[in-house]
């Protein structure tokens, strides 16, 4: 796809050649929607030749064949990535570069992310190689990461700047994580000259424990005052076993730090076992002068966790937590507890207790309408449904279905004039980003793109994002529409990428292709190399273990992360996994979608005897995980939007069975 679009547009997009036709709508590849490209009088073959020449020059530079490199580089003056060759050439001799050369590099290439990376590497090298005088000239020690700051301060220490060091080191010291080895000489000097006080020693020890670094904390105990050692043992014990709080005599000390330890232990116990925490907390609540906000934070977290478990005392704890002040999350869970009980008068009462801004949000207006409907006040309910039905959201679609009305999609296309196209495509960062994208150097392309977008006006960001989508870089179309709040540009927000792969997988696994598209849109925004903090990869964000198991069951090939980063393979594996979830959860897309996000084991736990006869909208609203609630609502709404994008006749957000209840027969 990238090469075909390039053959039509790259010469104008990269060389700044005259435009013979401002906007040309080209039929989408494999049935994808039309994308705008710019046609140039130049032959794009010249750009292909430049690209090949660039790659050869890069290869020659890697081999240190400087004669070949110089010859190849000479013909690339107009190629967008030629500065990368210059920077990489400099990187080969970076550690012998002079300050003047680095300054010249930044003056010439300061708008390129790689230049900043090289400068940081050079600064660190100056310190690590003991070039203190040079480092002092170019860095003041007050900025950068810990390693660079420590090296720079050591350079200034060589120049006798004792006060600067003594003032700056405490900020570096107060870290809950291990510091670079480059900081050790600086910290030694600081301690030897009386910089480390008992209070600072305790502060870092406490930070290490509360940041989940008990090993570092045990190392730091050597710096604690002798009188603080017993408290340090107590804190470490509470960290490893917060139920230690049951031994009240261990905490019977007149020291404000004991209150800190109790508060920390309670936070850990609340997360591990909120029911046990609810038993213990009343004893400690008024026992210590806790830090400001500590009691409120503990009681809010405790109330919310009890509410997500629909504990019999949840309503009481929610009210207690609200005594500290208004809080939207607490108010919302008051409504959810009432919804779970199907106590409709209480639902109305709890919504009425919300602040006006929260109360007027579509979600709570929908639940107000539902409550009124259940309480035989249909005229009031209908009026609210009518107002909501104009919304392009889960609740808007639910309201429209309630009224039997068609959905309001409110789609607007993106129009681009020749002036805007000329202005944006001439931006050096945009040109470099495109070329890096075409070379599959996605991280570098994104770095260039982000930096370029920061310098553009809002209107030009939208134009740039639409052009990127025309290249096939769909994630930038999505992000650009969101960044510019172009909510009605559905073509940008909901691209029909990889159409052949999505259609083929959906057909083979008997899935609604709109649903699979919606999952990909929610999971990765069509970023093919996306990686989550949980270690999921690709368009449909599969964990390697899940992908391996799915591949074995479905008879598909799986070669680790490489497979997951291939869009077609990822789509097929994700569709196979989704199909298995749909089968397990009795063809209920709500449950299968929730399981795709939270895991099938958790979702099975959420379907208890009390919830199986819940209406689906109540079940979705009262799921314990905020992320999964939003995820399911988004995916179901996006499924409707993708049906519209694909030109299908309007359907319904949920099937009759999905809408009625979570009554499943075969879920174990």
TrEMBL record:
SUPFAM superfamilies: Bacterial muramidases (SSF48435), Lysozyme-like (SSF53955)
InterPro entries in alphabetical order: Lysozyme-like_dom_sf (IPR023346), Lytic_TGlycoase_superhlx_L_sf (IPR037061), Lytic_TGlycosylase_superhlx_L (IPR012289), Lytic_TGlycosylase_superhlx_U (IPR008939), Transglyc_AS (IPR000189), Transglycosylase_SLT_dom_1 (IPR008258)
Superkingdom of the organism of origin: Bacteria
GO molecular function: hydrolase activity, hydrolyzing O-glycosyl compounds; peptidoglycan lytic transglycosylase activity
Signal found in the keyword field: yes
Lytic transglycosylase superhelical linker domain span: 424-490
Full protein name: Lytic murein transglycosylase
Native organism taxonomy: Bacteria, Pseudomonadati, Pseudomonadota, Gammaproteobacteria, Oceanospirillales
């Amino acid at each position: 796809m990238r090469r075909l679009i390039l053959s039509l547009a790259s010469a104008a997009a990269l060389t700044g050649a005259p435009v013979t036709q401002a906007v040309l709508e080209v039929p989408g590849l494999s049935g994808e929607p039309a994308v705008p490209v710019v046609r140039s009088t130049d032959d794009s073959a010249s750009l292909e030749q430049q690209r090949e020449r660039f790659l050869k020059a890069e290869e020659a530079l890697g081999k240190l064949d400087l004669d070949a490199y110089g010859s190849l580089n000479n013909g690339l003056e107009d190629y967008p990535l030629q500065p990368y060759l210059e920077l990489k050439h400099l990187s080969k001799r970076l550690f012998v570069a002079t300050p003047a050369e680095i300054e010249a590099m930044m003056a010439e290439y300061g708008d390129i992310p790689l230049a900043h990376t090289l400068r940081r590497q050079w600064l660190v090298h100056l310190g690590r190689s003991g070039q203190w005088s040079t480092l002092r000239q170019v860095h003041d020690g007050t900025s950068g990461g810990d390693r660079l700051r420590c090296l720079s301060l050591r350079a200034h220490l060589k120049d006798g700047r004792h006060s600067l060091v003594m003032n700056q080191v405490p900020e570096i010291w107060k870290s809950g994580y291990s510091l670079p080895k480059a900081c050790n000489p600086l910290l030694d000097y600081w301690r030897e000259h009386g910089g480390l006080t008992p209070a600072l020693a305790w502060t870092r020890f406490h930070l290490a424990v509360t940041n989940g670094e008990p090993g570092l904390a045990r190392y730091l105990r050597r710096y604690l005052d002798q009188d603080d050692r017993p408290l340090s043992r107590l804190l470490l014990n509470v960290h490893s076993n917060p139920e230690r709080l049951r031994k009240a005599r261990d905490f019977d000390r007149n020291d404000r730090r004991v209150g800190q330890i109790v508060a920390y232990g309670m936070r850990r116990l609340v997360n591990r076992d909120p029911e046990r925490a609810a038993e213990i907390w009343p004893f400690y609540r008024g026992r210590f002068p806790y830090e400001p906000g500590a009691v409120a934070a503990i009681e809010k977290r405790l109330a919310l966790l009890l509410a997500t478990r629909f504990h019999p005392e949840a309503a009481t704890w929610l009210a207690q937590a609200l005594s500290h002040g208004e809080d939207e999350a607490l108010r919302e869970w008051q409504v959810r507890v009432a919804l779970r009980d199907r106590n409709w008068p209480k639902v109305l009462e709890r919504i009425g207790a919300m602040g006006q801004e929260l109360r007027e949000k579509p979600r709570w207006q929908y639940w107000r309408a539902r409550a009124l409907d259940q309480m035989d006040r249909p005229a009031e309910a209908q009026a609210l449904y009518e107002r909501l039905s104009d919304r392009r959201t889960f609740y808007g679609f639910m309201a429209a279905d309630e009224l039997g009305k068609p959905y309001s999609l409110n789609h607007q296309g993106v129009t681009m004039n020749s002036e805007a196209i000329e202005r944006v495509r001439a931006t050096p960062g945009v040109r470099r980003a495109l070329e890096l994208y075409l070379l599959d150097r996605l991280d570098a392309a994104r770095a260039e793109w982000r930096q370029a977008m920061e310098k553009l006006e809002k209107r030009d960001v939208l134009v740039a994002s639409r052009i990127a989508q025309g290249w096939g870089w769909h994630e930038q179309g999505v992000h650009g529409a969101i960044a510019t709040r172009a909510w009605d540009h559905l073509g940008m927000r909901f691209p029909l990428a990889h159409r052949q792969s999505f259609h083929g997988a959906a057909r083979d696994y008997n899935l609604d292709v709109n649903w699979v598209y919606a999952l990909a849109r929610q999971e990765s925004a069509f970023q093919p190399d996306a990686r989550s903090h949980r270690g999921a990869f690709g368009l449909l964000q599969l964990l390697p273990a899940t992908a391996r198991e799915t591949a074995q069951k479905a008879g598909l090939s799986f070669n680790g992360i490489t497979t997951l980063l291939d869009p077609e393979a990822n789509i097929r594996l994700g569709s196979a996994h989704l199909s298995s979830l749909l089968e397990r959860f009795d063809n209920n897309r709500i449950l299968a979608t929730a399981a795709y996000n939270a895991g099938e084991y958790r979702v099975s736990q959420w379907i208890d005897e009390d919830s199986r006869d819940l209406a689906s909208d109540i079940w979705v609203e009262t799921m314990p995980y905020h992320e999964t609630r939003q995820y399911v609502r988004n995916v179901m709404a996006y499924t409707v939007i993708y049906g519209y994008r694909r030109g299908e006749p309007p359907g319904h957000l949920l099937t009759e069975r999905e809408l009625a209840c979570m009554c499943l027969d075969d879920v174990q």
